[in-house]
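User: Here's a chain of 207 residues. Predict its fold as tokens.
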Amino acid sequence: MTSEALAVIFLAAGCSQRFGPVNKLLVPLWGKPLVYWSSQAFQALPWMHRIAVLGHQADLVSPFFDGWMQVRNPRYQQDGHQGSLRAGLRILDHCRWQGDVVVALADMPFVQRGDVQALCRSWQGRLPHILAAHLHHQGQPGHPRILGHDLWRTVLADPSFSLRRWFADAVPLTLAIERHCGVITDVDTPQDYLAIQDVVTHRACHG
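Assistant: Prediction complete.
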């Protein structure tokens, strides 16, 4: 399995500001909380390290990552995704991890295990100059993403470094793998949530 040579950081710390007063990761979707579906694609793969970064209502989200290393980011409101990513990367640094890392988001319930495996396989066969990879759909970048060792070390060392800006500017250094619409479908607002509830199954987006 290609994921054996990778670590994974799962970002599940946000406070769902655009969603409203409830934690979107815990809202029911297809009979289970949304975070259950988002995490399933990553659960059974043999990662070298599995790290879940928690923040908002961490005690309620934590059970979905049983057996993972869990880190709580106390500054999740101030620092956003990138601050939570750095919290996870600090764990890898402490573990002296010299490999690459998959970064996943907790509000993307359509991502499937096959998508993650396709990303990992493509990364394994990349050209030497490639520093990162991501899934995309019809030209729109999505998740999860892989950060090569040199790139994630830069993210960790430089608090001003913008990973979002890097992906936008460094297209020649990034491997993009075409997949289905689910790799660009997140749940940011109640409208997003209502729209995906109409999908009969979480695999239906693959068509």
